Amino acid sequence: MRELVYYVAVSLDGYIAGPNGEFDAFLVEGDHMVGINERFADTIPTDYATALGIDQSGGGFDTVLMGADTYAVGLPEAPSPYRHLDQYVFTHRKPEPVDGVTFTDRDPVELVRELKSRSGKDIWLCGGGSLATQLIGEIDRLVLKRQPLLFGDGISLFAPGTYAPGRFERVSNREFETGVSFTEYVRA
């Protein structure tokens, strides 16, 4: 069965973006980028990967889920940022149609369960924190790209939710000279 994988960069103090969605402080150069290209090339926006000559055909994802604010980060430069994946954007607004992007106001849990029941590769939960909290019970795997930064404020890895402890087990950890680490967990 397909897994829902929350793969995301996060600061040491637990933020995936600044208070206004800023993410420019995250390190985008260094040896950790080789790690991304090796295993997670399919999480790089299509145009950027093409420009760098990165092959995205062997990735583990065929679907990406985003909240409207996460999707808006790339606009207007890339209205279809991950054309190599099936793209779902959760929003209550009625945006103009974009080729390759499905805008939906469906219950995220319902849609994820439907997607998991289909054949295919894993499903990447790109962000943000509110969507991650709505899908917390459906997340099978967490891959945290922990960055050696403190934000002090911003969008949390998970938005505040209902107290319901859920255990994950660490399955791998990879450290890089940049101070970035990739830590992967699976639901226990």
Automatic annotation (TrEMBL):
Bacterial bifunctional deaminase-reductase C-terminal domain: residues covered: 4-163
Signal peptide boundaries: none
Gene3D superfamilies recorded: Dihydrofolate Reductase, subunit A
PANTHER family xrefs: 2,5-DIAMINO-6-RIBOSYLAMINO-4(3H)-PYRIMIDINONE 5'-PHOSPHATE REDUCTASE, DIHYDROFOLATE REDUCTASE FAMILY PROTEIN (AFU_ORTHOLOGUE AFUA_8G06820)
Protein name: Bacterial bifunctional deaminase-reductase C-terminal domain-containing protein
Gene source species: Gordonia alkanivorans NBRC 16433
Gene Ontology biological-process annotations: riboflavin biosynthetic process
Sample GO molecular function, one term: 5-amino-6-(5-phosphoribosylamino)uracil reductase activity
InterPro entries xrefs: DHFR-like_dom_sf, RibDG_C, Riboflavin_Biosynth_HTPR
